Amino acid sequence: MGIAAADAVHWTACSMAETDQGRELLRRMGAGDPSALRELYALYGQHLYAYAYRLTGDPATAEDVTQETLMAAWRGAKRFRGESRVKTWLLGIVHNTAMNLLRRRHPEEITEEMSVKLSSSETSPEQRVQAGQVAALVRRGLDEMSPKHREVLELVFYHGLSMEEAARVCNVPPGTIKSRLSYAKARLKEALARARVAMEDLV
Amino acid sequence: MTGHPDFTEKLAEYAAGRLTREQRAAIDQHLAGCRECRAELALWRMAAEEIISANRDLVAPAGLADRVGGEAGLFERLWTLVRVQIPLVRRELFPASAALMLLGAGLAVAARRAGVFYFLAPMIAAGSLAAIYNRSSDPAMELVIATPTSPWKILLARMLLVSSYNLLLALAASAVLCALLPAGLFATVVFGWLAPLMFLSALALVISMWSGTGQAMVIAYAAWMANWMPFRDGFWAGYRQFWGNSALLCAGSALLLTAALWSAGRSVRPDARPEAAA
Q: What was the ipTM of the complex prediction?
């Protein structure tokens, strides 16, 4: 894989201009313009729903969380003071809403439910033995990872957040994000080691 | 950024494309001579690709934004607020109240006295209201901090939810009593517990906000039981008159409720909002 491939990460589209657009939308929402909320959803909805789904592991709950987040954004638009990116602010609301819903249920049930659902939907036995064996191992490592570690990878690689932004979303110190990241890396390495794939073979 | 560990630490951000040109150049230089870091970078890139492709199939449901905002009327917004409280209120509260109300009605029927139910119904309702707000361990209070809904609105929504539920239960139990006991008209039975139930619930709610669920239940129950004690003179005569006066109880409930909402409004530190946090 060439170094330039890293830039292919899709969220590069989330440029400064988009952030300005988000702020303008929040300003209009604060002024009571409902069409601004629809535009906000068009802009960030995919990220909000994907994150909610990753946290809850269930489409219906993810939809509820997303809806709740939009309501909170609508009501709180005036109070957004621009200390963070709009996306970070919204993802933070998703995080809190989802965590509160999950905590209401039995935590052990949730963890199990999540890992089972996510792994069954994304990794079938056939996929594991295909040519892209290493990729399949990584996928498996991701699926087996605990939600809070997977979450950090999602925030960094899919949602395009910095460590500081991810810390803000998860409501933890930046150091915690760093340690979760290195823990996640250890789990991925473990997944490879179990299949006797050496790290050196990756290059 | 000088040693190998510093580079290793930055590789995830490098793979995510988050670093500045200078940082990238420094890492590129290190990568050229460090096979271990090249392998780790390859691992992060694979993880990134897998994560992105796993999310590719997720499609945000259409029209979610249409259900929120300007189109939603006052009633609809209130309903949504109440509805989202359902999973947040302690789950065991609902079956517990129902079971206790049923038990209360059963005891009244067994004793052949509607008075038994008049005594129990307010206590059951007050007990559940004392439990809806628990500042120290309540995830919903974190929700308040996380989302811009005012805490008093959340409290109001919960109170509406739990009180309506209690009221329905008590009404159903009263209907059963009317059917099985010579207790008189349905309205007579309802007025036997309605005003005390409201006042005691409001009292329990306010005390629970100030000093916790346990104390609220003890104090509210003591206040209610004192009314049923066989004391007759002086202060106690007035005390019993108070509990027998529906107008006074309604006014008292309204006062306590205002106090509860006011306390809720003050309970959340403004600096705890995510905007101001970090």
A: 0.80
